[in-house]
């Protein structure tokens, strides 16, 4: 016999007060630990092993910096902002994560999916404010702008928009929206860290994240096609943007710029070839080839000296100024406009960062603090938003490059930031003649990893059909409707799949493995012997209000007996027998004698006298679940069939006790509850 341990009653009020006193107390030691936890760099930097780490950190920092510059300029197309803002974002994100991050290898900065989400909000707000989304439209640049060479658009939009200065033009308003969105997303992340809401990321399964990334990649690819072939079409907004954009592309395909088409074809061939060779011989290369930088340098030189913009009307990046703009507080009124859009941005940014951090920590045998990662990403958004930057996240491709080039700590992030700073201060104007189609090629080639997920669909389907369906639904919604709605649809659909799987779980009867005390699924295994007069029923899910009816239907179907119908049938038969007896007829309704009536009361189909319920897969019971078990106990007892429970876990037993299943004093507990199926079967045989 096993006896439950007596639980010591805990005074929750005292525990809460003790925790509150501890958290509210302020001692020098506690203050020091708080600062060290908030800025992890103070813990690991004094222990930095310079001789061992410095070479790997410098090399990986330089490589990432070289990759980061062309990607930052390219991703500005996705965000609908000028390249200088992408460079600001990359610089500040690396510095802040160096101070606050707990992962040694993650590369935080500009990320294609986050840039896309920012760009969609920026485009929508620009459209609502009455601005032209055409990239080549003249922009009015007033307060906070970098250049002021076009005053015509200023007077065209001589109005107060969301409380902003009337002098503010398209570019100024766009970065105002982006910084407000970034600030609110950062605040959400910090609040989630304070209230320890990191568990929200658990609802984003791998299938949802992969589907979201693939769907968003299709949207990114679609948005770049117009730059590849050099056509001018309006930037589509709202739901169904992917389909509308492709319709516009085919309508205007005749206007394609031959120069841009040729340039794009050459760049894609060079980039893909270099990437494939790099993947094939990566074990022989000490660091990846800086193909993007080489392509950008060569393309810029060809465009400049070939005068592709003047001769062939090829669209170029334009002037990228040097230096920093004075910091500016994001506009509060704009924050209210984008408060809802900032929530999915905050969650996606955090989830990608934490998942990559955990991947690196597991690979290199150290630990991260998910809550501190939330703070780090939050402040990577809040602080740079004052310096004309937009939202950031960890990026998978750059993180993999970072680890492969010998990165040891986040010192490599500082080196990358210095490379970006060099471009910001001195080299930015050199990219004036860089064609936009080259930037589009870099973006599209960087999507290879996400787009390759389509090749994994058959394998994914073979492993798990439900997860494949979640991936397809999330990907389709993200691509065909919008990224935010796609993410929401993916989360809701994956939860519905879990609910449906618990509502209609697997149910089966068990048979005994010959000459053993073990029992298994009669439908899955051969050579199992049935136990005479005993049915063993297994229900592979928690028993709660949503699957109560399915539990009963499955039980009645598999045992071929509905006790309620059988009881009603018997009552009806007994009533008819009494009517015949009152009339003085000594034969029953079926023509049998009174002595033979008893045989008719027990139907032939009842071939068992005990029902054993295998509860090993029932993780919990709610009130409805307890009442359901009490109901079948009573119903089968009326038919002289005993119901025995086997393999219940402690929480299920506790629920049954509280629900009165075993009676007031638990007197019948030893006759109703067994720790193994075999014990229950033996008890049923002895009772028979």
Automatic annotation (TrEMBL):
It catalyses: sulfate(out) + 2 chloride(in) = sulfate(in) + 2 chloride(out); oxalate(out) + 2 chloride(in) = oxalate(in) + 2 chloride(out); iodide(in) + chloride(out) = iodide(out) + chloride(in); bromide(in) + chloride(out) = bromide(out) + chloride(in). The keyword Phosphoprotein applies. Its main location: membrane. Keywords: Cell membrane, Glycoprotein, Membrane, Phosphoprotein, Transmembrane, Transmembrane helix, Transport. The chain crosses the membrane at residues 53-75, 95-118, 172-191, 211-229, 334-354, 375-397, 409-427, 471-500. InterPro entries: S04_transporter_CS, SLC26A/SulP_dom, SLC26A/SulP_fam, STAS_dom, STAS_dom_sf. PROSITE patterns: SLC26A, STAS. Residues 524-684 form the STAS domain. The keyword Lipid metabolism does not apply. GO terms for cellular component: apical plasma membrane. It is found in: Apical cell membrane. GO terms for molecular function: secondary active sulfate transmembrane transporter activity. It is a multi-pass membrane protein. Belongs to the SLC26A/SulP transporter (TC 2.A.53) family. This is Sulfate transporter. The lineage of its organism: Eukaryota, Metazoa, Chordata, Craniata, Vertebrata.
């Amino acid at each position: 016999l096993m006896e439950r341990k007596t639980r010591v009653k805990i005074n929750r009020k005292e525990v809460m007060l003790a925790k509150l006193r501890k958290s509210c107390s302020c001692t020098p030691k506690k203050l020091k630990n708080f600062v060290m936890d908030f800025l992890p760099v103070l813990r690991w930097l004094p222990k930095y092993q310079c001789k061992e780490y410095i070479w790997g950190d410098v090399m990986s920092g330089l490589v990432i910096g070289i990759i980061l510059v062309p990607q930052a300029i390219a991703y500005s197309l996705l965000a609908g902002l000028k390249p200088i803002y992408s460079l600001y974002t990359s610089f500040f994100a690396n510095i802040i994560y160096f101070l606050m991050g707990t992962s040694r290898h993650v590369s935080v900065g500009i990320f294609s999916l986050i840039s896309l989400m920012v760009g969609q909000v920026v485009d929508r707000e620009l459209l609502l404010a009455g601005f032209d989304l055409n990239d080549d439209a003249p922009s009015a640049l007033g307060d906070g702008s970098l250049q002021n060479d076009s005053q015509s658009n200023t007077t065209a939009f001589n109005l107060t928009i969301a409380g902003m200065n009337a002098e503010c033009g398209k570019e100024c308003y766009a970065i105002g929206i982006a910084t407000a969105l970034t600030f609110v997303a950062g605040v959400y992340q910090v609040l989630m860290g304070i209230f320890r809401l990191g568990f929200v990321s658990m609802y984003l399964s791998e299938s949802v994240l992969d589907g979201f990334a693939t769907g968003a990649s299709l949207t990114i690819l679609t948005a770049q096609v117009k730059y590849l072939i050099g056509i001018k079409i309006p930037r589509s907004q709202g739901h169904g943007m992917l389909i509308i954009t492709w319709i516009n592309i085919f309508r205007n395909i005749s206007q394609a710029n031959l120069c841009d088409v040729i340039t794009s074809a050459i760049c894609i061939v060079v980039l893909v070839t270099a990437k494939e060779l790099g993947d094939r011989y990566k074990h022989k290369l000490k660091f990846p080839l800086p193909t993007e930088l080489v392509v950008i340098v060569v393309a810029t030189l060809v465009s400049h000296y070939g005068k592709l913009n003047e001769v062939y009307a090829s669209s170029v990046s334009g002037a990228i100024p040097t230096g920093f703009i004075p910091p500016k507080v994001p506009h509060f009124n704009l924050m209210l406009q984008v408060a809802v859009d900032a929530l999915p941005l905050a969650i996606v940014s955090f989830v990608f960062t934490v998942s990559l951090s955990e991947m690196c920590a597991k690979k290199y045998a150290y630990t991260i603090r998910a809550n501190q990662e939330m703070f780090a990403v939050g402040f990577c958004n809040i602080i740079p938003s004052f310096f004309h930057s937009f939202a950031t996240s960890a990026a998978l491709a750059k993180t993999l490059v970072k680890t492969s080039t010998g990165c040891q700590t986040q010192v490599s992030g500082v080196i990358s930031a210095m490379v970006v700073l060099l471009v910001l201060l001195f080299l930015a104007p050199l990219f004036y003649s860089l064609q936009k189609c080259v930037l589009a090629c870099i973006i599209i080639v960087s999507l290879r990893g996400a787009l390759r997920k389509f090749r994994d669909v058959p394998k994914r389907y073979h492993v798990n059909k439900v997860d494949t369906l979640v991936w397809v639904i999330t990907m389709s919604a993200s691509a065909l409707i919008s990224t935010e709605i796609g993410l929401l649809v993916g989360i809701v659909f994956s939860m519905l799949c879990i609910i449906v799987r618990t509502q209609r779980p697997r149910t089966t009867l068990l048979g005994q493995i010959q000459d053993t005390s073990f029992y298994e699924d009669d439908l899955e295994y051969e050579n199992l012997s049935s136990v005479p007069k005993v049915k063993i029923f297994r229900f592979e899910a928690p028993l709660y209000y949503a699957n109560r009816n399915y539990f009963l239907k499955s039980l009645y179907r598999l045992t071929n007996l509905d006790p309620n119908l059988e009881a009603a049938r018997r009552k009806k038969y007994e009533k008819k027998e009494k009517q015949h007896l009152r009339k003085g007829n000594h034969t029953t309704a079926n023509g049998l004698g009174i002595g033979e009536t008893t045989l008719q009361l027990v139907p032939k189909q009842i071939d068992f006298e005990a029902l054993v319920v295998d509860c090993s897969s029932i993780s919990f019971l709610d009130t409805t679940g307890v009442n359901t078990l009490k109901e079948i106990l009573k119903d089968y007892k009326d038919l002289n069939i005993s119901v025995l429970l086997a393999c219940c876990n402690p929480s299920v037993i506790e629920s049954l006790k509280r629900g009165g299943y075993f009676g007031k004093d638990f007197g019948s507990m030893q006759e109703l509850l067994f720790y193994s199926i075999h014990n229950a079967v033996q008890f049923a045989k002895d009772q028979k």
